[in-house]
Amino acid sequence: MPPPDQAPELIIERFHRAMTTTHRRLGALITQKLDNDLTAPQCFILGIISKDQNITVTRLAEKMEVKPSAITVMLDRLVNNGYAERIHDVKDRRVVLVRCTEKGISALQRIKGDIEALLKHHLQEMDTTEMLRFVETFEKIAGELSKDGS
């Protein structure tokens, strides 16, 4: 039997507190690095679009696990601010595709560099073995969450 301070409930509570704090603080630090006209959710959408250029709005919504109407406003702002563009499918003009513009790709590259520098700075207290063990554990959690759709 594990010692009382290592009971599964307490470990889960510690994990939850650490995740909440990390998410909140890291989110705030990343938001400070974004362009004035780009929000974190828009950056997330832009990241999906950049990996899957010429994606339909429906497919984009599926990847984000929301209804297409939920991303329309954010997509409108990305288009209006020059980060993305809507185009019609050449095979079926009724189908609207979305892709990143050069401005969007450039912003993502800069933000990715800023995030990597931020993470490197905050993870510098861990040695390579600790970082690898942490990432492998985190990937395992992510994999489990992906399995059950949570």
Keywords:
150 residues, mainly alpha, Arc Repressor Mutant, subunit A, 2 domains, three-stranded antiparallel sheet, 3 strands, 8% strand
Describe what this molecule looks like in 3D:
By secondary structure, this protein is mainly α. It folds into two domains: 33 residues; 115 residues, Orthogonal Bundle (Arc Repressor Mutant, subunit A), CATH 1.10.10. It is built from six helices and three strands; from the N terminus they run ααβααββαα. A three-stranded antiparallel sheet has the order 1-3-2. Strand 2 and strand 3 form a beta hairpin. The longest helix has 26 residues. It is elongated. It starts with 7 loop residues before the first helix and ends with a helix. The mean pLDDT is 87.
Write the layout of secondary structure elements.
Layout (H helix, E strand, L loop, with lengths): L7 H26 L6 H12 L3 E2 H8 L3 H13 L3 E5 L7 E5 L1 H22 L4 H21 L2
Antiparallel strand pairs: 1-3, 2-3
Helix pairs in contact: 2-4, 3-4
